[in-house]
Specification:
By secondary structure, this protein is an alpha+beta fold. The protein has four helices and six strands, in the order ααββαββββα. It is 33% helix and 38% strand.
Length: 153
């Protein structure tokens, strides 16, 4: 197996581990998957949020998200991995299903679906590939009505 193939697979595994840890609400694993301060300053943009810079600020955002999200599941599609030496870029579509706290004794609050396109940048470290930057942007899909209006113009 070539080194490039091995790197691509290792980055894919790191990317999957990142989403799996968020789904499980495992803050310690999420923190372990982010680059530490010795290897560079990290950044993160959640959909609708300002740019977060620095490990502390980024990890606080994940703690907040996990504390306020009862359920979250990511179905990743359109995953593309590009590796150049010690840096890798993963682009993907996050098909997200999430739910907030339950109301009136229900097991789970209402579920909401969302599409987000994401870019995750990884750096190779002695401890493996670590997240250097995450940027998620919401996909604003057109409704069928808007598409019909365009056809008549």
């Amino acid at each position: 197996m070539s080194e490039a193939r091995t790197d691509t697979e290792a980055v894919e595994q790191a990317n999957t581990a990142f989403y799996d840890a968020v789904e499980r609400g495992d803050f310690e694993e999420v923190a372990d998957l982010w680059l530490d301060d010795r290897h560079g300053d990290v950044s993160c943009v959640h959909p609708g949020w300002p740019v977060l810079s620095g490990r502390g600020e980024v990890l606080r955002s994940y703690a907040l998200i996990m504390a306020n999200t009862e359920y979250i599941q990511f179905f990743l599609t359109d995953v593309n991995v590009s590796v150049a030496t010690d840096t890798a870029v993963v682009t993907c579509t996050e098909n997200i299903l999430s739910g907030g706290p339950a109301e009136d004794g229900a097991e789970l609050g209402p579920l909401v679906g969302q599409l987000v396109v994401a870019t995750n940048v990884f750096r190779r470290t002695p401890d493996g590939w670590k997240v250097w930057s995450h940027h998620g942007s919401p996909v604003l899909a057109e409704s069928d009505d808007e598409e019909d209006d365009e056809d008549t113009v």
